[in-house]
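At this stage, I put together a protein sequence along with its fold in C-alpha cell form, as given directly below:
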Amino acid sequence: MPSPDTPTSSAPPRPLGRWALIALAVAGLAAGFGYVAGPLDPQRLTPQRLVDNLQNNGGLHPGYRRNHAKGVCVIGRFDSSGNAAAYSRAGLFAAGASTPLVGRFALPGGNPYAPDGGVPIRSFALRLTQADGQQWRTGMNNMPVFPVATPQAFFEQLQAGAPDPATGKPNPDKQKAFFAAHPETAAFRAWAKDSKPSASYATESYYGLNAFYFIDADGKRNAVRWRVAPDNGAAAAPLSAQDQDVLANELNQRLTQGPLRWRLLATLAAPGDPTNDATKTWPADRAEIDAGSVVIERAQAQDAGECRDINYDPLILPDGIAASDDPLLPARSAAYADSYRRRTAEQAQAGGRPPQETRR
C-alpha cells in the first residue's frame, strides 16, 4: 500500500496533483477525529472507524503511530519567563519555574519510512511534567491553520483521500469535489501552495492551532492560542521530494553545538475571536505573551526513546489551562487513545518494540 507521502496521481493537472499529496498528509495530521456528542451518526464517526480510515489511507505499520509515524524523541525543559503567571495559575508558568519535558518532532502520515521531503508539514509535540505531577501535553504543527473546522469535515476529507483500488492512489475527482464543497480549506491551501519542505526541524515555528483557556488565580478565563518561535539560526534549504532521514541527522548535528530554543508565545483573544474554528486565524494585532523558552538539549531514537510510549493527548492539561469549545479537541483525544491502544498492543506482541518489517 502506498505511503501517504507518495504522489497521488500520475497525470492530474499540476495544482490538483499537489493537493492530492497534501491532503493525504493532512489525513494523518490530527491522528483522526473520534465520535463527539452532536448531530453525527455514531455508526459513521467513531475513533475506531477513523483510525481504520487512516490505516487504509496511509498503510498499516504495526507498532507505530497511525499518524506522525516517522519522528524523533527530544528531551529538554521549559524555562518560564513569569509573564504568563498573571493569566494562568499553572505551576509551569510561575516566575523562575523550570519544567522538564519530553517532546517529539515528526512528519505527518502513517509510514515510518517516508521521505523527509515529501510534504512541507512538520509537527512538534510536548509533554511537560510539573513538580506536583500534573502534565501539559500539546501537539503543534508548522502551519498556522488547520484545513477543516469539524470532525465531520475531516472524516469527509479522509474519505476523499482514500486510495482507489484500481490505482492505489486517491481519486483526483473526489478530492477536487471535497475542496469545492469545503471553502474553509482556502487558508490552509494558500499556506501549502507556497510552502517548501524545510531541511530542519529546528528552524520552524509550530502552532497549537486549537484555542484553549488560561485560568488565573481568581478563576478568570482568557482564551488563548499558542505557538513556539525558533531562535536557532537561519532556516535550512528546502529538501527534494525523496530526501531520506535528513531531518533527524540535521537535528542531531545542531545539538552537538548546544541546546535549541523556541519562545513560547500565547496570543490572547479579543471578544468575538472564534475559539471553535481552527481554520481561522486571529487578527495580528492581538496581545501576545512571551511565556518563556522551550529548550531542547538532546535527541533520542524514537523506537527506544522516552517519547515512544507517550500519547500526546491535547486534553491532558494542568490546573490553569482548560479546553475551549473547539470540537476537534475531544475528537482528537478519542482517536489518539484508540491509536495508542493499537500500537502498544502490537509492540507488546513483538516484545516491546515496533515489529520489524521490510522498508518500503
Strands lie at 71-80, 98-106, 123-129, 135-141, 206-207, 212-215, 221-230, 260-268, 288-301, 321-323. The first strand starts at residue 71 and ends at 80. The domain at 14-271+281-349 is CATH 2.40.180.10 (Catalase HpII,  Chain A, domain 1). The chain has a mean pLDDT of 86.
